[in-house]
């Protein structure tokens, strides 16, 4: 049995194939996923698993150098935005690097998901609970 943090074989496989600057999306239950992009659907029911639960597991295994958020999260989901910023700060300390945070419009965010290696869908049902993670290197 795999000893690492990620037991889901699809997520583990996607993360292991990421190269420097490749992107991976963790999203809420409502974000449209382009047909051309690999979809890993973790959603069981509303709120299960939560966006943060999925993100915490993914970032425990993935080296992150940048994160992209929809700017609308600041106004429409400020509590989650603060939680995300706190998580990214902790991740920076754990990884020993600076993680650049970029904001874009939600429409541009949706377009950028088409360039991602995969979209991991959570059961989250709160607005703008989406992030694009840009892979870094561990050396």
Descriptive account of the structure:
The protein has 139 residues and is an alpha/beta fold. It has one domain (15-135): RbsD-like fold (3-Layer(aba) Sandwich), CATH 3.40.1650.10. It contains five helices and six strands, in the order αββαβααβαββ. It has a six-stranded mixed sheet. The mean pLDDT is 96.
Based on the coordinates given, report the CATH architecture. Answer: 3-Layer(aba) Sandwich
Distance between the termini: 27 Å
- The number of strands is 6
Fill in the CATH topology. RbsD-like fold
Structural class: alpha/beta
Descriptive keywords:
139 residues, alpha/beta, RbsD-like fold, six-stranded mixed sheet, globular
Offer a concise description of the structure:
The protein is an alpha/beta fold and 139 residues long. Helices cover 35% and strands 22% of the residues. The two termini are 27 Å apart.
